[in-house]
Amino acid sequence: MKKDQVNIGILGTGIYIPDNYMTAKDIADKTNGIWTEEAIVEKLGIIKKPIPGENDGTQQMGVYASLEAIKNTDTNPLSIDLIISVGEEWKEYPLTTTAIYIQEEIGASNAWAFDLQQRCSTTVSAMKVAKDMMIADESVNTVLIAGGYRNGDLIDYTDPAMSMMFNLGAGGGAILLKKGMTKNLLHETHIITDGSLARDAGVFYGGTTNPITKDNLDLAYKSLKIFNVEHMKNRLNDVSLKNWFTCIDKAFKKSGMDKSKIDYLGILHFKRSMHHQILQSLGLSDKNTIYLENYGHLGQIDQILSLHLGLQEKKIKEGSVISMISAGIGYAWAANVISWG
């Protein structure tokens, strides 16, 4: 089966957002005066962000979103061949496989399942992996990509170096892909990773290097940290925008399309100035995207959420050309191309 003979399309999406929110004022208060409410809104671009409730575990939010996607697309769970979890590793129980849990909870007993992880760039990469697997394997026709995210639990708001992650929120997302579609087509993807940043950020306590002990217990659960502040800052300043634009350029080139045709950018949440810089560089405006200022950053769920909201708000129309772009600590950058309708 030749690659150019197979179309992979998006059936639809599902989103789960917790009922509880943290406002810009709440965030400012937690910084003990380091940040003002106004600066949280204007500079960091956060009006409010969802935070998890009692039953909003990472895996469970992936289930909630999957059930929404199934309902929204009128999909029989028994028709799903493969489930790829993009949910985060901060979850209910370490060393449990989220995709297999989702499989059981949604009744997809004919599927097989695995977890995939690239931090906040996972969804775009998972869509590429799913497409390539569907092309390569005749038995894989319908794929569910789903997961949850609540890494905001791990943030110490009194650490000034962590302001770039004050936007971390909570939620779940799911997207269904199907082989042989003639609409909502997923075209090509380009991904860049940079291993020089592999150990610049992460959770400091809880692994084999720094196990949680009675002495560090109070620190451990707020220990998502930037380990090497200067290196990470300088390296990202040098390569981040360049890598994003390279990913966009190459994704469009691989797709045989012109990036000037972008109608909608499914972009992750980050500070307001960078958001506008990217839009301006691509010749786009606010009408071509949704700034997630009422959600913050839901990690790898952002691109699914942006697509979902773009359709709801009719910014994505029949014939729209979409590019999802993402980045994840480690560091990874990715972009894809989708033609809607």
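the 2nd protein, sequnce then structure:
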Amino acid sequence: MRLLIISFLLTISLSLVAKDSPKYPVSSIPQKMKDGMYAVVREDFYRFEIVSINRSRQKVHKVITILNENGKRFATEAVFYDKLEKVVSVSGIAYDANGEVIKKLKNNEIFDRSAYDANSLYTDNRYKFMDLEQATYPYTVEFEYETETKYLYAIPTFRLYYDDEVSIEKETYEVEYPIVLKPRYKLNSIEEPRKERLGDNEKLVWSFTNIIPEKFEKYTSHNLIPHVMLAPTIFEYEGYRGSMASWKDYGLWQMQLNNGRDIVDAATLEKIKQLTQNLKSTEEKAKAVYEYVQSRTRYVNISLGIGGLQPFPADVVDKNGYGDCKALSNYTVALLKSIGIKGYFTTIQAGANEPEMILDFPSHQGNHVVVSVPNGRDTLWLECTSQTNPFGYSGTFTGNRYALMITEEGGKIVRTPKLKPEQNTQYQKAEVVLEKSGNAKAKVSTAYSGIQYEIGDLDARINSSFDEQKKWLQENLNIPSFELGTFSMINKKGKVPSAIVNVDLTLNRYASVSGKRIFITPNLMNRNTYIPPKLETRKNPVVFKNSYVDIDTIVYSIPEEIYPEFVPQPVKFSSRYGEYEANFKFDQGKLIYTRKLKMIPGEHPPAAYSELVDFYKNINKADNTKLVFLSKT
């Protein structure tokens, strides 16, 4: 009996110890892993398993200590799924600074939500949402989940760093697969994985411990950040089997998805024929078709099953008047085909700051579709999701990058147009009447072209309401204080579009008055305030993408009773990053200020970064040059 009691008490004692034993106490994190960080990844485990040519599994276990408010985004987790991907299990636990459990999510606290948004029409995307945010820092969150997919198409890219202020104690990335379905991988600043043989399977393992991230350097290529790209060689998605052994093969698979989806109602084809019958060139006809599509359709998101990869049939778009980038591009290709013009469905990585396509690693790298139309030595590029985009203009969204043209012979790598600095211009002319009191009135006319047509979303606002245009002016006129008078915006569409903005302004206290002296900064509204952060040493090449020319001419009418105490000397300097010139001239009661800034894109060695900092400093100094007037009375 005594032994039974002792055994019982020992069992209770052990269970209490196990129950109360803290996990992930913050005190166990080395101080160097916390210094300057807002979160510490205690453990990050990701496992991707290729089960068969059309099935895969994913397992995730992540534990993150959140040190302060800047890291609170890590307190939530969303697990996405759809009809082809199911969530097998999901859980979330929060711990206090001592590692004691303070919250364990119940099933009814894990919210199931639709991934629908305002632009989505057909989508079966949903997600399980977990929220473990706490009011007191630091605390630790632990998320664990498993999913299964009924296809094999893409393998998530592994990126070593979370952020340059998030350290990592332990990180593991595993990929297991049957040897006959061995995936490909491409390393970038990461060592080869450990390989393990598991019968007929094989496993790749990347493991890392005690990682203190390097500070991200501005003007660095995204492709230089340590990562591993992975992709299957052969795969299957909803019955469509394909290969990513080459871009040609991958394009042939996409062509499978598109085949037979170019049928359009005869009445619509007759309209297109009538619309283009008197036009002579390919460009004229393509423009007419493009503008017809713009006037008849609108963009909606479609991500229903394979609909995330396969376009809706052209006749569905024709009937309903809407579609996503795939559907609208496919519809445009079908209409062009009906009048004997060959257009191509072309996948591309769209976005102003997206990484460049990796050409030596065939895989799913696009997030958007456009239409390319060969036209002699030129190619016309059609962005089919916008109702207002100028014909043939790619801009910052899809311009100057590689893309994959889908042809009957397979995928072909092509490149979208790059605009020269001289095509991305801002010409500003202003007449300013200065009063002795320091107040002024100004008439300003600014012409924006090329990528400068997109400043502050001007390309969208120029087609919007009076109030939206007024809001744009209030947000983008770079003057400390002004009253907005009459204004107008003129849209000039083209392959290099432009917008002309005319505005009348009242500038109260534009000049500073001190006794008999009146101080002004002649650069009215195009002053540079940005200077890149100074670095003691730099590791990565400088990737400078700025490519534009600004030309300003400001004419000040000066009251007769005041005159310049001195007129600044001309300023002129240049570097590998650009050229700057400013001139000041006073003649017959008028001060004429001219300025030209040309930014030149390019990639330069790390040592050239200090030259970039100096270049911006010099621009800043020159732009803020002051001129002093004296009053005769």
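Residues 1-18 have pLDDT under 50 and may be disordered. The chain has three domains: 26-232, 241-415, 421-631.
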